[in-house]
């Protein structure tokens, strides 16, 4: 009874408030009269009409501040009148508040005539950055909001693809509509009688708990069924394997006693043994009376297509070929370059391709060692776009093979011609792609890395990577991979240090690019250049760690761990990174030089033969058949090399084709 008396005034006020809200006028009069007769005191409560009027004024002021971009007034009203329990606990309110901060951060960019006031804009961006680092940090794990954490660090968000939707005409009106609905709902809820609120909260809490337990039960049952199916399958496979093993042991014992095993019996065992590796119809169709058939089936199931011999291609008359490549018509040159390339790209990997390449190199097909006024290499500067492109494709095909790179790298002549062509070629995307692809593969060799760094190729790469959306996927991947390979050398890092701010900005923008194939190379480049103290200092000044942490929840676990390594490097105080590639020793690493023949080499052919016109292998073997220009099998370099942890960023030279196919890096 004492507890009731202690809170009697508040309880009576709750009853009175509810009767007033529900418009029980007569009951309310009787209730108030009886309380007065009995001397019961009622707590003072604000009238409903007064509350409604005040709510409308607050809503109007909030909308006005939204429209005028008055950030301070808006958030002062927001924090004063929107209950903290809603602001901090309701997901919809948190999301709305996040977008409202974006609205005010970019308000000047959308509504200023001409260039916005820099001081005001910087103040708004700083306010938004503070919000992201404090209250807004809770949403950094949400994919929807993750890209916006980089907004304060992007110099011109209006042209950045990640923020395109923010600057569409429909974005602000849609956000305003969401705000109006939210405010109407919040202030209506604030007028609800406390008695009703207490009842609903208690009932809702019990209902939510019941629903949560029910959902957990359903999820547990689903997992149980999944595990049961897996268990049954494993158990069935186990019993099948035990049965086959027992039968094979019995068969071995029978052979000791002189009993023969019939082909039919062996076939039935193989059908059971290989049921998950090949079609049973295939097992039924094989002749098991031939010795070694079962082991052949097993090898074929594991490595199909490796059991047949591949013949060598016919020899060619290279003297006549080179003569026509120099003096023939542009159309003939193009068909010859195409046919020679196809010989490399379509030949079977192994002895057939090795023999083709050795014949090309032995006969100096590209005139790499020629000092004459006219040479095949000069086709890179042909007036014909088709000839230039097909020459670039052929060089890229050479560069795709380790021995081909060695042939092209005997002098820096080929490298200089490719660099010159790369900077001049802006009409034909495919030509530039193939020149860039060849240079990227050249960067697997240290002397060529050194030459490219000295020639300032890093600056050219940084310049084109400023606008990655204008590049083809091939150009983007090979540009970033080439940049990474050059940044692995101490000379390359020092070159980057001269334009540290620009390099860091370009690489941080590439972190969020939609082409995920480039991520390992971006990570590798960042990890490498951050070994330079001056670059680390620049990165810290521009908030690089914050940008990295914004992307750390995106992508797979390997990429996340690589970014963690980069952050660790960023916060390091070491003067040297100790990376193997950072020294300037020109000695080659055999394990890095592997073969990568891409399908892109033969994409989008420009020429097609007309009726009666020869092309491809038929052109070569009809018009240029030679005698004994193919020689023995060339020496191959081993691929057993240094491995890296998959967690770490790339720290040895790679090429995109080789990295995707899993060669040692």
UniProtKB/TrEMBL annotation:
Q: Which SMART domains match?
A: LisH
Q: Where is the LisH domain?
A: 452-571
- Indicate the segments annotated as coiled coil, or none if absent: none
Where can this protein be found? Cytoplasm, Cytoskeleton, Cilium basal body; Cytoplasm, Cytoskeleton, Microtubule organizing center, Centrosome, Centriole
Q: Domain ARMC9 CTLH-like: where? A: 57-188
Keywords of the record: Cell projection, Cilium biogenesis/degradation, Cytoplasm, Cytoskeleton
Give me the ranges of the annotated region Disordered. Answer: 644-665
Q: How does it assemble?
A: Interacts with TOGARAM1, CCDC66, CEP104, CSPP1 and CEP290. Interacts with NDUFAF2.
Q: Tell me the leader sequence span.
A: none
This protein's source sits in the domain of life called: Eukaryota
According to UniProt, the name of this protein is LisH domain-containing protein ARMC9
Organism, per UniProt? Felis catus (Cat)
